[in-house]
Each structure stands twice: as C-alpha cells, then as structure tokens.
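User: quick one
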Amino acid sequence: MLVYILKRLGLALLVALAVSIIAFLLLRLSGDPAIAIAGEGAQEADIALIRTTYGFDRPLPVQYVDWLGKSLRGDFGDSIYFKVPAASLIFDKLQTTLLLGFLALAFALAISVPLGVLAAIYRNSWLDRLCLAIAVIGQALPNFFFALLLIMLFSITLRWLPVSGSGSWAHFVMPTIDLGYYAAPAFMRLIRAGMIEVLDADYIRTARAKGLPTSTVVFKHALRNAVVPVVALAAVQLGYLLGGSVVVETIFALDGLGYLAYQSITYKDFPVMQTIVLLLSVIYVVLTLASDIVNAWLDPRIRVA
Amino acid sequence: MTSATASSGTVAASLPAPPGLLRRIWRNKAVIVGFGLLLLILLMAIFAPWLAPHDPYHQDLTNRTVPPFWHDGGTWIHPLGTDPLGRDYLSRLLYGARISLLIGGAVAVISGFIGTTMGMLAGYFGGKTDMVVSFMITTRLSMPVILVALATVALLGGSLWVVIMVLGLLKWDRFAVVMRSATQQVRSLDYVAAAQAAGASTPRVLLGEVLPNVLPHLVVVVTLEAASAILLEAALSFLGLGVQPPLPSWGLMISEAKSYMFFSFWLIAIPGTLLALLIFSINLAGDGLRDLFSPEGRA
Amino acid sequence: MKIESLRRAGLRLAVGSLFTAVALGAGPALASKKDNTIRFAADQAPESVDPFFNNVRIGVILGAQIWDTLIYRDPITNEYKGNLAKSWKQIDDRTIEFELREGVKFHNGEPFDADSVVYTMNFVADSANRVTTQQNVSWIEKAEKLDQYRVRVTTKKVFPAAIEYLSGPVVMHPAKYYAEVGPKGMNAKPVGTGPFKVAAYVPGKSITLERNADYFKDSPKGAAKVDKVEIRFIPDRQTQMAEVLSGGIDLIMHVAKDQAEQAARVPHLQVVSGETMRIVFMQFNTRDDTPTPALKDIRVRKAIAHALDRESIVKNIVGAGSRVLHTQCFPSQFGCTDEGAPRYEYDPAKAKRLLAEAGFPNGFETEIFAYRERNQTEAMINNLQAVGIRAKLTFSQYAAMRDATRSGKSSLTHQTWGSFSVNDVSASTPVYFTFEADDITRDPEVRDLLVKGNNSVDPEVRKQAYREGLARIAENVYSVPMWSLPVFYVASRDLSFSAYPDEMVRFWEMSWK
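Assistant: Done. Structure below.
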C-alpha cells in the first residue's frame, strides 16, 4: 500500500509541475506583462525599469523557476487591478468557492442517491424510466439558462431568495442547485448500475432468501458496495465543480474564486489569473490523488495495476 | 490509472456489427428519437437561408422587441418577434443552429483526431508511449477547462474560429481515455495478431484492423463531446468571451436578451429551450448508440 | 416542427404570462425602508476609491459622498457656494485666496485646515504622482498656507475655470493621513470630511457608507438623512434589473431606455430620467502605428461619419433627453458651439463612394472598443457593416479599454465622457486633444487653439479659440461626435430622490417616504 501511495504521490507531483509550466506559459502568451503592470500613460523608461525590476528580460526558464519558487513561498505577486497581494485576494474568495463546491456535491448526491437506488430496485419500470429521463434532461439544460430560470422563479416571482451576492445562506441556495444539478445524472447512473450489479449478486440473493427485510439488504450490503466507485467520482466531480463555478458565480455575483477568475480575465490581471489556474489545478491533483488512494484502500486489486 | 478510466464507464469489448443491426436500431427508441430530432435541427440549419423570413443581421430600430405572434402586438411578419435591436428572431434562431452544429462538429473532429491518435498509440504500443500519453492525459485532466478556455479566448480575442481551436485543443481527453482502453482490449484479438504476423506495417494494422473495431466507442464519444462542446461555447458566448456579435449563437442571444427577460421572457426561453433540445437529442442518440453497440454494458 | 413549436409556444405563453403577472403584482420589499438604508448597484468597480485615482462615474459619486471640495456648485441655480471654504477672492490673474471654514474634522478625527488644502493640492498637481485625469489638476501650480485658515492657490497660466474644478473633482484629503498612507492607503481605508464615512470596503465587491453624525452644519450639501448606503458593484445589467425587481436593490442608474419604459409599468417601481452632460463620440486611432491604417485617410473617416445614422439611433435607442452632437463637447458647457463646424449627414451611399475613392471599394476589417451601452455600439456596428466596414467588438471595463486606447492598441473606440460634470469646455474637448494621455490624434494646431481657450481671461477670446479648435477637429474628422446621453434611474417607489443633469447621485438628500 505504501509503495502505491508513494508512486501516486510522485506522479501527482510531476503532474502538478507540468500544470504549473502550462499556467505560467499561458499568460506569457498574451504579450508584455511589463506594460500591464506599468499601467496607462507609462513612458518607455518606466516600462524598461519595470522590466528589469521584475526580471522580465531574463530567459523564460529562469523566470519560471523564480516564479515557482516565489509561489511555493506563498508570494503570488500583486493584483494589477485591485492593487492588493494576489494571495490575500484569492484565499479570501477560496472559502466561498469551496463551500459552494461542497454544497453542490452534497446536493447532487442528495438527489442522485435516492433516485439511483429507486431506479435500481424498480429497474425497467416506469419509475426507472422517469429517473433516467430526469437524468437526460438534466444534462441537456445549460447551466446559465437554468440559472436565469431559477432567478425568474425564486427571486422575481416568489421573492423567496435574493438575486445575487454572498451575504447569507439564502444566497447560496440557487447557486448550489445550479452548480449541482449537472453532476447528479452521472452519480445516479453510477449508483444505479452499481446497485443492480450488487443486487443481482449471489450473496444478496442468499440474504433475501434467508428472509432478511429488503431495506436491510439494500442499505447494509448493496449500497455499501455500490458506493465505492461513487467516492472516486465524487472526488473528481468536486474538482470539476470548483472549476465550473465560474459561470454560476458570475451570474449570481457570488463572491468566490470563479467570479474573481472572471473579473481577473476581464481586467487582464495576470498575477491573479495565473494563481487561480495554478491553485485549481493543484486542488484537482490533490483530489485525484486522494481519490486514487481511497479507491486502492477500498479495493486492493487496484494497487497492483 | 483510476482517474483516467473513471469517466469511461463500462467499456465492453464487442464486434462492430452485431447481427440484426437494423432491427435493433428500429427497436431502440433512444436512437430513433435522438437522431430524429438531430436531423430536424440539422435540416433547420441547412435550409436556414430558405426558411428564414428575413436577414438575421438586419437591424430595424423602429421594431425592437416585438413579441411573437401569439402575444398582443405580435405579427406574422416576425413570427417569433424581434430582438432588442430589431432583428427577426426566427431567422436568428435558424442561423444560430448552424453555429451550434458547426461548433459541435468541428470541435468533435479536431479533439477526436488528437485524442484518438493519442489513445490508439498508447493502447497499441503500451510501455513508454503509454506512460507518456497517460501522463499527458492526467495533466490535461488536472486543468480547469472552462477557466483555461476563458483565459485563452480573452487573450486571443473572441471569435468563432478561436473558440473552435481552443476547445478542439482542450477537449481531447475523453477520446484519448476511451480509445486507449478500447485499443488495449482489441490489441489482443486474433485477427490483429494475424495481421501483424503477416507483416503489415503499424499504420496499416492501426487503421485497418484496430480502428474498425474501436469505431463504435469512438462514435459514442463523438456524440458526447460534440454536445459538451456546444454547451461550452454557449457558456463562453454567454459570458462574452466566445463568439462575438452580431453572430447569432444561441448562447450569445440569451446573453444579449437577459436584461429584457423580465419583460420579454420569450427572448431567452426560445433559444434556451432549443439549446437544451439540441443537447438532449445528441445525448439521447449517444446513449442509444452505446446501448446498441454494447448490449452487455447496459444494466 | 411547426406543431412542436406551437406546443412549446403555448407552454411558454402560459409560463411567461404567469411570471409577468405575478411579478407585476408582487409587493415591494420592506427591508431597506425598515433599516433606513439605501441599496445601490454600480456597474463599474473603481480601480481606487481615492477620487484622484479613478475616472469612472461611481468614483465621482463616491467622491462627493465621502469628501468635500472647497466650493460647491448648486445643481439647480448653478450658483457657487462655499463648502470647505467660507469665502474666496481673486487676488490677481493667477491667484485666488480662500478663507477656510473652522471646526471641520475628518472622519478619523484629524482637523481640517490650511495644511490639508496645501498638502492635497501640491500632491495632486505633481505629475509624478500620476493622478489619473491630469486635466483635473495640471492647471495647479501651487498652494501656499498664509495662516491656519487661509490659503492661496496659484494656477500655472490664467485659468478662468479654476473655480469650476475646485467645486468638482478636486476634493480635500487629510494632510497627515495622506502623507502617511498615500493613495494606496487612502484606497484601503478612505478618510474624508463628507456627509458619509466608509464603514466597510471590499474591493471589486461592495462599499458601505454610514452617515457622518459629525458632519459640519454649515455645509451647503446638508447632512444625510439615511443611516447607511450599501453600494454593490454589479457589472451585469440583468442582475441589476433583477435585483431592483425583487427588492434587493433600491436604486439603479444607466438603465437602457427600453427597459426603463417597461420598468415604469411595474407598480412598486419609479423611473426618473434626465439629460446629462455625458457626450458620446467615436475616437479614431490615426497614429502611425495604428492597427487600421485606413483610418489615417480623411476620406475613410468622413465615410464613417456619413455611415452612422445618428438621428435614428438617438430617437429609437438612446431615448428622450438626448440630442445629436456635431462637435465634441456638451452644448451647455462654456465655449461649446458647433458654429462653423461641418455637418456629416447620414448618407450611406456617399460613405461607400468615399471608401471606394480611398481605395476600399469592398470596405475593410477593423475593431471597435466599447465599455457601456453595448446596444448602441451594436447599432453603430450595424451601420458600418452596411457600407462594408466590418468591425469586431471588444467589450470590456472602462479602465482596460482606456488603457488599450491610450497605448495605441485601438482602432475605433466608442467613447463617452462626463467631464466630471464640470460645465466648461476645458473639461471635455481638451482631454482628448491637448497631447495628454488620451490624445491619440496629436494635432499641434488644435492643441494650441484649445490651450488658448483654457488660459485666456477674456471670455470672447476663449469662445473664439474654442470655436476654431472645435471646427478644425470637425473638418478633419479626428472623431465623430454622436449624441448626449440621458440617464434613466429605476428605483423603488418609496424612495424619495431627484435626478440632476450633472449625473451626480446625492445620497445625502435621499430618504424613505
């Protein structure tokens, strides 16, 4: 097990490194960062000064190593637009996005587990087909459109929920629904498939034949086994949710990382953009690593692969 | 590589053309409805110039936000009304179908080409090639796609072709993953070994023996990725960082109309529903195809 | 397909009317009224709250709530009244002496006196400190302290508009605090003398003002009536409208004419509109390194002027209270005139002919930058398209667009300028034509004429110089003046407020009915 973890860790570090290189290059694409930092009306002399101060005239690999070094120490540079350190800006908003991500995941699971279980138990019945229909329709609805519909219904018409902002728990309800609904169908199918596989298995049939009540069978045995692949998917989906929150947060003006990312992209605020891409990627890598390890722990066969 | 395979679902090996294919197609409602709807939208797009009552770019400032014919104040001249700049809505919707379909198709082709090549090479050769490709896949999966796409489009400037290139170069991961495992399974089949023994060159083996066998999986992934690309473009255009006005992308139309949605709900309802319908039809078709090609895969 | 759409249509009719009916009938939200707070949405987040380091409208508005100026111009009578200054007199051509008000304190307790005025004015006049709009401060030569409550302000050249500027953009900062923390610190924790102090500020997100209970009684502005003002930066107009419809926000401005008209029919909302001093014009990048070299040819620029159907756009899209302009200034500003300036009537056929003459019979590709009123930009793009000019739109926040234009990256820019509400041509046209950062034309003759207008004592000499300068700009089509902007405010019906032509939102005057 330890060997497996170490191998996975090593791989994760390499991937993180590769991603950091891409994040770094991505923004150098856009042209001269010295001009962006110097700001409007800057003279050639000012720009040249900034170039040497920040070291933009050094070869790219040297700049990269320097940037990496600083980042590891938590120094991500200053936001060009807001003029505060990028790190403080980002870690402020990170909490909101993490909260949103977890809530959305919980919401997705809260709908998909019961639906998946029901669909599996009553497979091929009208209930099963209804669940599948909900799944397919859910995946077809664009999240920005769904967001507008939610706003029309809950804010304008019913006035139950606020339109935008992030002040109270009420501000998180619609964003959670809007972010989470898209992940639900994948979980539902997985649970349904896993449950069916397990329900058909011999030992379950034995348990039922022995007269154990259905609910015990379902919850104690079948669900526990069907959950394994779901955990893996959950970790990966959390990553997608965090990244995909850009659209949701922007529509609801929810003050999180996604919204900050959108603002920094619009304002061409490179230090912030770069840091967010790097941060999210590292989170993905960590989540995937965790998911791999959990999987391996639950299912020893994988360790050998 | 759990992470790489988690999303591929159950991929069962199967022969490409099971007996009674036509009959099974007929009985598989998902494929019928899905492809049927898709065909309808495709026809809409192809025949847009003949079906559209007006030029989708023509602004008529005296006739802004005219409601559809079933409201008071609606008129048959503009059956689905006009948008905030006086452009005929029905015409824009019809031409918008072209954009969505073009994007879905082009991105699927580009990313499909990249991903399939990578996946097949990794699955066929194994060893170092596999290690490299798998590493690339994991790296790509660790990047937040929407953010990277947004940032790149913002840096390069939004336009139809930039969006296609950026999405095409980003969305090859699922192709690579699925093609890799499909190729791995097919690699060990008899006739592949036979072709190799007969001295066929690698490209010939890959194209002649492996590809036809993994084609079913490829087709399924193509549909899913096309749908995903259409959704991504719509989201990018909605945020202002995708296709630029005055192109009638459905996502952009929703974005342009959102300030008016409280008073003219149809302005977002119609393109939104059409988008959903398009994605729905593609997903349905993809699901149906998956069932068709691997009956054991369906629980 | 037809049946599909009919069924869908029927469903949508039902749903749509349900929404509209319920929305129209729903009652107002009472939260704001109960806690005597006004919630306002602004669409551009300022780069800095310090009024000298931003040039967006919300920055100007915050400037007036949090800070005071030496003089205050009454928006209705246009009379100048003493604000932080009790009185003033002109000593000579270039010097004004002020007698300052005693007993005024800044929000952090620091007393206001001559030191504040001297430090602030000398700091902002120094170009090394890079105040964003140099036009507002570059006329100041120095400020000197005579005694604790008397100062003298000297202008570099004769500058009759000085009083205008001292009643608008030139606010007074606390000397000790500003010296200590500088603009960066002032942005992080703003301190002024105004009717409101800053209770909380989250950059890019929101700023909360609370009533300054110690506001000096003799201020012509008057003490605030509400306890708090919460301002949220919401760039999205649809979200702003949604908020105002659902009662989450009490006041929004810059609403498009169409939506304002429809909002007026909603029972719990009121719509107020009026003309403003904001002018809209199309800037051309005619520098040597312009991305669109075609723009260097005057025939191309004339073609563009003829291609834009300004009357139609004004009538249909911009709305009541706006008018077509023929020179780049607002008609009420001293020195603004369109006498002698050529007119370019809407004539697409002529535009095409001119383009063909210039060597572009099939038009050309270019790019247009914009940051607000996107529907107007799109109407312009459409007009250009009709004569063969294909303009791609880049829409962004003001600062990004301004910087891109200043650094020569733009081709066409859909610009607007509010002149900081200063009612003198020196605050508008020269910003773009006297070799400052925003001048991307650089015509020395125009510059000389405008500078003469800025710095002459005799009003007739000023008017003549401005008239010639404006005519020359119009002859060479260095820019296309388009129209003035009305502003539409949408607010909760229970909010009592007035709109003024200087586009200034006076929160200290507002209250709940």
